[in-house]
Amino acid sequence: GFMGSGKSTIGPILANSIGYSHMDIDREIERLTKKRVTEIFLDEGESYFRTVEHGVLETISQEQRYVISLGGGTIADEINFVIIKSSGLLVYLKTDPEQIFQRLKHKNDRPVLKSEDGTMPKDDELRRKIRSVLDLREGYYNRADIVIETGDKRLGLTVDDIVRRITPYIE
Questions:
Q1: How far apart are CA 163 and CA 18, in angstroms?
Q2: Segment 96-106, tens digit of pLDDT
Q3: Which distant-in-sequence residues (6+ apart) come within 8 Å of 68 by Cβ?
Q4: Is the distance from CB of 144 to CB of 90 less than 8 angstroms?
Q5: Alpha helices for 19-77 (secondary structure H)
Q6: Which end of the chain is more exposed for a tag (fewer CB within 10 A), N or C?
Q7: Does residue 112 contact residue 73 with C-beta atoms inside 8 Å?
Q8: How far apart are CA 19 and CA 140, in angstroms?
Q9: Residue 13's CB: how many other CB atoms inside 10 A?
């Protein structure tokens, strides 16, 4: 799902619920590079970040019984998409653009959404950027095995819904 859809929050809870291990790709990149994602984008650029991200994805895709919290853009690369689809079950946490806006408008750690001067844009521009990036990625997101509408649903209900929907695939 898109940034702000709940991947990093839901991933470890889901993993615990089904007895799997968990990895958050962005946190693993930060561990390996010893830099925050925002610093990597600023210092090395998005291309470098995507190269490291691809390497992490290749490595973790070899593991069994993992819930992986992908970065919002990990999937928006055809090579990554093939790796993801061939190594596991892909769940899309679908979130309305306005809800994404509400979740992200006070955050400043989303480099893909920042203005050219490195600041977070004002509300209208942020909404446009969210919609623009979402439009670019949604074709990949919609090819998921399972789509879960997150909406205003409580976290526990979302996890329960995912567990119910994935159980036939993992047993």
A1: 7
A2: 999 988 888 87
A3: 11, 22, 23, 24, 25, 60, 88
A4: yes
A5: 25-33, 37-43, 46-60
A6: C
A7: yes
A8: 28
A9: 17
Structure token pair of residue 42: 């600023």
- The verdict on pTM exceeding 0.90 is no
Written as one letter, the residue type at 57 is L
Q: What is the pLDDT of residues 53-86, one digit of tens each?
A: 999 999 999 999 999 999 888 999 999 999 999 9
Contact criterion met (CB below 8 Å) for 155 and 10: yes
Half-sphere exposure of 162 (CA within 13 A, CB side): 29
**Helical axes 78-87 vs 46-60, angle rounded to 10°:** 20
Contact (CB, 8 A) for 26 and 37: yes
Give the position of tokens 């679908």: 94
Strand partners, 69: 24
Question: Which pair of tokens denotes residue 153?
Answer: 């649903």
Which is nearest to 14 in space by CA: 88, 76, 74? 88
CA atoms lying within 13 Å on the CB side of residue 123: 3
